[in-house]
Amino acid sequence: MLTVNQRTYQPPRQPTVVVCVDGCEPDYLAQAVAAGRMPWLQSALAEGTGLVADCVVPSFTNPNNLSIVTGAPPSVHGICGNYLFDTASGTEVMMNDPKWLRAPTLLAALADAGHSVAVVTAKDKLRRLLGHGMKGICFSSEKADQATLAENGIEDVPALVGMAVPDVYSAELSEFVFAAGVQLMRTRRPDVMYLSTTDYVQHKHAPGTPGANAFNAMMDRYLGELDAMGCVIALTADHGMNAKVGLDGRPDVIYLQDWCDRAIGTGRVRVILPITDPYVVHHGALGSFATVYLPPDQPAAPIVAQLRGLRGMELVLERGAAADRFELPADRIGDIVCVSERFTVIGTSVARHDLSGLDAPLRSHGGISEQRVPLVVNRKLANVDPNRRWRNFDAFDLVLNHLQ
Amino acid sequence: MLTVNQRTYQPPRQPTVVVCVDGCEPDYLAQAVAAGRMPWLQSALAEGTGLVADCVVPSFTNPNNLSIVTGAPPSVHGICGNYLFDTASGTEVMMNDPKWLRAPTLLAALADAGHSVAVVTAKDKLRRLLGHGMKGICFSSEKADQATLAENGIEDVPALVGMAVPDVYSAELSEFVFAAGVQLMRTRRPDVMYLSTTDYVQHKHAPGTPGANAFNAMMDRYLGELDAMGCVIALTADHGMNAKVGLDGRPDVIYLQDWCDRAIGTGRVRVILPITDPYVVHHGALGSFATVYLPPDQPAAPIVAQLRGLRGMELVLERGAAADRFELPADRIGDIVCVSERFTVIGTSVARHDLSGLDAPLRSHGGISEQRVPLVVNRKLANVDPNRRWRNFDAFDLVLNHLQ
Fold first, then answer.
1. Residue among A163, A312, A339, A327 nearest A252 (CA)
2. Residues of chain A falling short of pLDDT 50
3. Inter-chain CB proximity A243 and B27 less than 8 Å
4. Does A257 share its domain with A293?
5. H or E element at residue A110
6. Do B140 and B198 fall into the same domain?
7. Residue B52: its pLDDT value, please?
8. From the candidates B235, B245, B248, which should be mutated to test the interface with A, based on the most A CB atoms within 10 A?
9. What is the pLDDT of residue A47?
10. CATH code for the domain in which residue A90 is found
11. pLDDT (tens digit, 9 = 90+) per residue, B325-373?
12. Are B30 and A311 a contacting pair at CB < 8 A?
């Protein structure tokens, strides 16, 4: 038995794979199954277990991947966005460095306990966080050709996978993750594997459309191969995905820095968009969650009251209430947290968002409206109450502790 | 000036058309505009006014159409569903009879004030309610060939429109409404026209898909013709529309009568689904809103508490709280009101829903998740605050009182 972040896990008894499908709104699976494009998933749902779970809000990639591999919310592991304002240094930084991590991962603990562990992620930004302190294999599709035994526990990855390194903006970047997972299972049979994709496709294609169904059909084929090799598989997501457009089909944006500049004075407030990462062409850094740092002499309450009155704003909370409600580290989320509605995103200033790369109506995430995610296991489970509030970070608990 | 249901309206100064597009989730328009399929709407949004409004919950056809033509919520006009339990007679009945109407319509008042008024609705079920007490033209596509001067103020409708009466389950049933509106405007130029379609297409096709875009392109052409004739046009909807399926693509249903039978005893509770109407093939009478009538000896509170714990249930309220929150007539909504979530519907008993007619993954409405609707006017308006909570039943107020 292994205890990590106050949860106890039994050791894996068969090869165990947890898959985090980036941006996998449940409807993607539903529509693809209904169209006959996911025969493996259809049978996994019939013969295994299909739950719908809540992800962590902000419904972004880093906080949720870290929640899944720690089994805990951001209040425990500390990763509350892809991007934050570091109050200590007074700078805005990417949250990719393991120095931000406040809790050990279950992956590292399993490796320390003698189990072989492999991690494959699409983008390199997540690799160091997921692999922190972990002995084993850990690499990204994005930099698969740069993997070394010393740094990644593996080399010559493209040759193993039989694919060239794909473009960072492509469906193939995620396919590479699945193809690598299948080849790793075939050649090395790790005890535990964690696969994490990128949501490039989901940012462009709505559930049931040809682009989305093709992606899910591809995923289904690889998961079927893993299943055929005897793997226990849990499929979940870091967050959902929704259209974020006005009636004219253009992004429906609350430009929050501009609003604060008008309301409180130019430059007195700092608006942080935790969706920000190095790759923003497909969403223009527009998501449904923002944090606001106020000047010391500015009380939060009157600003909160005004922000709540804005069309498209779903929820505005002060720091303490937001930390409680969403289980976030209070020292890293600013004075005010804003969550916009299903069809609305939050930006900083008009001038700071380059939307020229958007070649399809904006789809994005970050809010409560993207909190529902699938949680599927290809086995019947014991003691599973469908009316309980399941979390995506219960995935390892289900596959290690609840198999019938 | 005309005062109806405590709201005051100026008389129409030019031909004025209010269009209620059944099931028009805002994203239908956004995706069709983005795809270049709605050039009239694109220019109306650029040169006129595009708002997003809240419809009435339950987000069903009858309550919302009556709200639009009375300018008032169901607590005023009395129509709180398509279907209700008549406690006086102890029977379940359709709410199509004007005897259920508790308020006059603006349409009747305009006609009484000497303005020419025409109403065209897709299904006949709405016709008597919309036309109650109104002098003028009022007919349905469904029974266009049976219209008489005495009953409908017009005859020989198919010849006027140049279309045969379409099948009740077809996109053409709604096209007939628009085609009739254009011919009425061309030949009789009514002062005020109200057009109301059916959501057959929206129940089958998601926003941005070919079926949905074709419907919206069709609508756009007719609205462009009305605009070219000098009409002021307001476009709104009775409710939105969402996929209502589980991960396996099949309807995600809370069978509430079965649940109550198990919890309280078989047949002791009566569950009413106000979505019920004579035409349920395309949605199986499954929506996201239900009311529950308890036996006199059964307190509501413990049942409410249990129902709130069910997966997929968004909100469960006792009668008084539900009447307050949704502005409903308390004497017509039962002891408990249940609203399910975006992807979940409520049924009665498994055996009472025939889902064999569903040839596409279920899409439906009824809940809070379908409350957002478009509210577009092809004119700039004065004194319009986009942060105000607009309602679809503000449509006549906007076009009669707020033109610049």
1. A312
2. none
3. yes
4. yes
5. helix A106-112
6. yes
7. 96
8. B248
9. 97
10. 3.40.720.10
11. 999 999 999 999 999 999 999 999 999 998 888 899 999 999 999 999 9
12. no
Q: Is residue B108 part of a domain?
A: yes
Q: Residues B234, B401: contact at Cβ < 8 Å?
A: no
Scanning A79-108 for CB atoms below 8 A from B yields: none
* Same domain assignment for residues A370 and A341: no
Give the pLDDT of residue A283. 79
Claim to verify: residue A332 and residue A219 sit in the same structural domain: no
Closest in A31, A250, A374 to B249, CB measured: A31
Q: Could you give the CA distance from residue A163 to residue A184 in angstroms, rounded to a whole number?
A: 14
Q: Which residues of B touch A250 (CB under 8 A)?
A: 34
CATH of the domain at A269: 3.30.1360.110
A156 and A303 part of one domain: no
Tell me, yes or no, whether A342 and A370 share the same domain: no
Split into its structural domains, chain B has a count of: 2
DSSP string of A42-101, one letter each residue: HHHHHHSEEEEEE-PSS--HHHHHHHHHHTS-HHHH----SEEEETTTTEEEES-SGGG-
The residue type found at A318 is: E
Contact with chain A for residue B361, Cβ under 8 A:
yes
For B228, the domain range is: 2-241+366-401
- Please judge whether A248 and B27 are an interchain contact, meaning their C-beta atoms are less than 8 angstroms apart: no
Structure tokens at A247: 């009636």
Same domain, B161 and B34: yes
In a domain, B248, yes or no: no
pLDDT tens-digit readout, B255-310: 999 999 999 999 999 999 999 877 777 778 999 999 999 999 999 999 999 999 99
Instruction: Extract the runs of DSSP E, i.e. beta strands, from A200-264.
Output: 232-236, 242-243, 253-255
Q: How confident is the model over A242-278, as pLDDT tens digits?
A: 999 999 999 999 999 999 999 999 999 999 999 987 7
**Contacts of residue B26 in chain A, CB cutoff 8 Å?**
247, 343
Same domain, A272 and A303: yes
Q: Do A247 and B343 touch (CB under 8 A)?
A: no
Residue A101: predicted pLDDT: 98
Q: Is the CB of B50 inside 8 Å of chain A's CB atoms?
A: yes
For chain A, say whether B212 makes contact (Cβ under 8 Å). Answer: no
